[in-house]
């Protein structure tokens, strides 16, 4: 089946990111296709390029990036939620006159329309809230 | 059949009431994260209305030292079981 995940919890504040990641790994291990993870509300902090958690703790940002590369999962970040929280890619940093890039690749800033598209295109959409 | 997912303990949050009021006769409910507390014998009464349709996530029970302490009416599933529930359900509704 084709799945999408909607994640709305901030990393290290709520269990949502860990729950979503565990669910995502179980999905692909069972042979499902995970089309995308959509990061919304405080969930956008999962895309923080500069996250540096202690080495003996799970690195959520890297874990999402690894999942994306290994299983071709799109990591879509709501652009409106990201900009107001200081999460910018190169293009948005230039547009807003900021001198740093805070969104890690392969996360991509995208619009809410993508979430609607996932909801209609995928067989299942599973939400992990804060 | 819909799958409802609750991540709050009925001891701290009343979101379980909203989930229960939204549930159809064939729907099932999975407790995850702090929600697994609702599977304990002391708290499972809040879910009496849906006896036999209540599940709890094994990994979250284990992380809290609660594995083996659930009420008998609760079905314990691991994350693969969670995936299976989402396969079987038409849609998944999360309450938080």
TrEMBL record, chain A:
It is found in: Cytoplasm. Keywords: Cytoplasm, Transferase. It holds the Pfam family DsrE. GO terms for cellular component: sulfurtransferase complex. GO terms for biological process: tRNA wobble position uridine thiolation. InterPro entries: DsrEFH-like, Sulphur_relay_DsrE/F-like, Sulphur_relay_TusD/DsrE. Transmembrane segments: none annotated. Belongs to the DsrE/TusD family. This is tRNA 2-thiouridine synthesizing protein D. It comes from Halomonas saccharevitans.
UniProtKB/TrEMBL annotation, chain B:
GO terms for cellular component: sulfurtransferase complex. InterPro entries: DsrEFH-like, Sulphur_relay_TusB/DsrH. One of its GO terms (biological process) is tRNA wobble position uridine thiolation. Gene3D superfamilies: DsrEFH-like. This is Sulfurtransferase complex subunit TusB. It holds the Pfam family DsrH. It comes from the Bacteria.
């Amino acid at each position: 089946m084709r799945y999408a995940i909607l994640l709305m919890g901030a990393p290290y504040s709520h269990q949502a990111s860990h729950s979503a990641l565990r669910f995502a790994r179980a999905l692909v291990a069972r042979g499902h296709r995970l089309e995308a993870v959509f990061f919304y509300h405080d969930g956008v902090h999962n895309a923080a390029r500069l996250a540096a958690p202690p080495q003996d703790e799970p690195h959520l940002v890297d874990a999402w990036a690894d999942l994306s590369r290994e299983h071709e999962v799109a990591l879509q970040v709501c652009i409106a939620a990201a900009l107001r929280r200081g999460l910018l890619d190169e293009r948005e940093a230039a547009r807003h006159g900021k001198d740093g890039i805070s969104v890690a690749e392969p996360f991509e800033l995208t619009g809410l329309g993508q979430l609607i598209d996932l909801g209609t295109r995928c067989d299942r959409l599973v939400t992990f809230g804060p | 059949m819909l799958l409802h997912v609750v991540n709050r303990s009925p001891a701290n949050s009343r979101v379980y009431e909203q989930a229960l009021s939204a549930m159809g006769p064939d729907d099932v409910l999975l407790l995850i994260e702090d929600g697994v507390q609702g599977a304990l014998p002391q708290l499972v009464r809040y879910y009496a209305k849906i006896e036999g349709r209540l599940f709890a996530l094994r990994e979250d029970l284990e992380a809290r030292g609660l594995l083996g302490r659930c009420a008998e009416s609760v079905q314990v599933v691991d994350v693969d079981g969670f995936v299976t529930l989402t396969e079987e359900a038409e849609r998944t509704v999360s309450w938080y």
